[in-house]
Amino acid sequence: MKTTKGKLFELQEGFDQVSNLRGAKFVYAAAKNKRKVDAECEDISKAIAPTEEYVPVQEKERELVMTHCLKDAEGNPVPNNQGNLFVPAKNDKAYKADREKLKAEHKEIFEKRDKQTKDYEELLKGEIEIELHMIKEEDLPEDITAGQLAGIMDMVE
């Protein structure tokens, strides 16, 4: 099957969503395909891994978020529903000013990271050939949902 490298991450998520379903032929095909897709995704992900020089700067960015993020009455950070910290509107101006100062101090490192991110986005658009173990429609589990099926449709004949 020919697809984009970015689509592999969607397929990887699809396999994660069906990991609890049953049926010998289905489980075999899904597990075999997941192993292949996971290996490809791991290789692709290396392209966006922070460089050694960026890691300390990334930590400073985290510290800025911790300083300016939403906090409870006791001063503890309050994550959103996805578990991420966010900067509320009332702190946004100060956060942006501090972040711009950090970017100015580490201009070259940020420029390299921006290039790395752009290169990664281009990489995700690139095509890849991957052979999936196909299964027949009749071998799909009866309890598979439409959403789950959409995520793994590429392995169904």
Total helical segments: 6
Determine Rg (CA atoms, Å).
Answer: 21 Å
What's the total count of β strands?
Answer: 2
Q: What is the straight-line distance between the termini?
A: 12 Å
- The number of distinct structural domains comes to 2
Parts with pLDDT < 50 across at least 5 consecutive residues: none
Q: Overall 3D geometry?
A: elongated
- Overall structural class, as computed from helix and strand content, comes to mainly alpha
Helix content: 55-70%
- Average pLDDT works out at 96
- Oligomerization category of the chains in this entry: single chain
Structure report:
The chain is mostly helical. It has 6 helices and 2 strands, in the order βαααααβα. The longest helix has 22 residues.
Brief rundown of the structure:
This protein has helices spanning 5-17, 24-45, 54-68, 89-105, 107-125, 146-152, and strands at 2-4, 127-129. The chain is mainly alpha-helical.
List key phrases describing it:
about 60% helix; 2 domains; single chain; elongated; 6 helices; 2 strands; mainly alpha
Topology:
Layout: E1 2-4, H1 5-17, H2 24-45, H3 54-68, H4 89-105, H5 107-125, E2 127-129, H6 146-152
Antiparallel strand pairs: 1-2
Helix pairs in contact: 1-2, 1-6, 3-4
